[in-house]
Amino acid sequence: MSLRLRAAIAAAFVICAFGALPAVAAGEFTDSAGRIVVVPDQVSRVLPADTTAEVLVYVLAPQKLAGWASRPRGALPTSRRIPVLGQLMGNPAAAAAVARRAHANLIIDAGVITPERAVFADQVSQATGVPYILIDNSLDRTPTMLRVIGRLLGVADRGDDLAGSAEHAINAIRGRLLIQSPAVRPKVYYARGPVGLETGEPGSGAAASIDAAGAINVAGALGAGQRITVTPQQLQVWNPDIIIVQDRRFFSAIRRNRAWRNLAAVRNNKVFLEPSEPFGWINDPPGVNRLIGLYWLSQIFYPGEAQDDLRSLMADFYNKFYGIKLTDAQIEAIAKSAGIAPSDTPHLSALPTLGTTPNGANPAAPETGLPGITPGVPGAVNEPGRRGGLPNGAPMIPK
Question: In the chain, where does the domain assigned CATH 3.40.50.1980 lie?
């Protein structure tokens, strides 16, 4: 089943979950911190304050991206020569200088909403005159984020379409898996960094996908909501059933590592490498790129359950969200490194092109460093959309 059909099925739940998006005064936007920000009628150059906002702008309206916060793996899209400007943090004066250099007329910051970040946004905006909005990037609120920012960027139809796919990935996958008894849920450790000892506690952006997919995060024994560093001794006590590794070099070395090779996950070949191009499937950044990871995690955690065709979902997602048409060879390369079971059937020939632009619009296509890929452009259309804040006028502030 394609993401388009899944989106249509999921769309019936939108009003119940979020309510209708309100029509508010033109030029005013209520962000996730409750700040009322005056935005331009036509947003043309968006500066992402962080990597999460970078992915959000790219999947919705790549032609409006003023610069990368951090260049994606695969240098996408190199054909537009988008500069790498860095993340906006630390000194407000330095951030203001970046905004001026980018000639941005809007700054978007997607992350955890804090009073400190709101003050920083106000300082940068006052120094530059460029509106700076804060958006909650919680996994649960990804559909709302896509709809709201889609309207803000003038691509409401694109935002609604991607939001429907996001709702299916979050609601259907998690709804199916969370009914599992705690007694049968696997114990999972997410090994980040070059030595695998950094991880995310439940409730953190780094672990949100693992939480949503119905597994037990062993780092939950240490608390919630943070990235932490653990010890080899703690890993021995936890003895996880599954280990997901972020770093490719560490993944290649884990079976030879004395501190790891006696763990149950390593002994039973339940160690998986997180796909990372052009963005991570679990994190890096904690943005809309995590949606495809939910499908992958569901198959790793519950291989005996009824499974979706992950290869087709992968091709569908990359085409629709990133404008990348994966070849069979590229899909198999990703599947092999991610531990997805082999398939003898072709998957791409009948797939619809879900990421094509309406009305035949086709701006310059981005290049990509991924081998065997035919590039395209996601959401490259500037449709008029009504200005809006968050559903029911309420900011999306984490609970």
Answer: 13-167, 174-375
- Cβ-count burial 42-71 (b if 16+ within 10 Å, e if not): ebbbbbbbbbbbbbbbbbbbbbbbbbbbeb
Q: Using CA atoms, how far apart are residues 147 and 152, in angstroms rounded to an integer?
A: 9
| pLDDT tens column, 101-152 | 999 999 999 988 999 999 999 999 999 999 999 999 999 899 999 999 999 9
In sequence order, what are the residues at sequence separation of 6 or more whose Cβ sits closer than 8 angstroms to the Cβ of residue 249? Answer: 194
- Residue 106: the pLDDT is 96
What would be the CATH architecture of the domain defined by 13-167?
3-Layer(aba) Sandwich (3.40)
CA R_g for the chain: 21
Burial 1-34 (b: 16+ CB within 10 A, else e): ebbeebbeebbeebeeebeebeebeeeebbbbbb
Nearest-angstrom CA–CA distance, 247 and 244 = 10
Q: Parallel, antiparallel, or unpaired for β 242-245 and 187-191?
A: parallel
CATH number of 174-375: 3.40.50.1980
DSSP label at residue 66:
-
Cβ-contact 164, 8 below 8 angstroms = yes
Instruction: Quote the CA–CA distance of 123 and 132 in Å, as a whole number.
Output: 9
331-358: b (≥16 Cβ within 10 Å) or e: bbbbbeebbbeeeeeebbeebeebbbbe
Look up the pTM and report it.
Answer: 0.79
Give the helix/strand (H/E) hosting 110: strand 106-111
